[in-house]
């Protein structure tokens, strides 16, 4: 069985009345200003999500370095059974 692309005149490629070739409906496109740029008004939630995405405070670099140094010097011991117990408890909570 050979898979080929649809013919050029297929319904998937035909244009629909009122739509542009780039797939954006011209009636729903924002009006362009004299400079050629459209205006977009974001909701409060969208602005909040955008701020979270652009945040440079995702990682506390100083704390990461402290933990790295403590591990390297042997001051911080890892208890695998405690980690396993925590993971199991998390999975149990997720399955409830």
UniProtKB/TrEMBL annotation:
Pfam families associated with the record: FlgM
Biased composition (Polar residues): 11-25
One biological process term in Gene Ontology: bacterial-type flagellum organization
Role this protein plays: Responsible for the coupling of flagellin expression to flagellar assembly by preventing expression of the flagellin genes when a component of the middle class of proteins is defective. It negatively regulates flagellar genes by inhibiting the activity of FliA by directly binding to FliA.
Family, as annotated: Belongs to the FlgM family.
Start and end residues of each stretch annotated as Disordered: 1-39
Keywords (A to Z) from UniProt: Bacterial flagellum biogenesis, Repressor, Transcription, Transcription regulation
InterPro entries for the chain: Anti-sigma-28_factor_FlgM_sf, FlgM, FlgM_C
Segments forming domain Anti-sigma-28 factor FlgM C-terminal: 40-88
Protein name: Negative regulator of flagellin synthesis
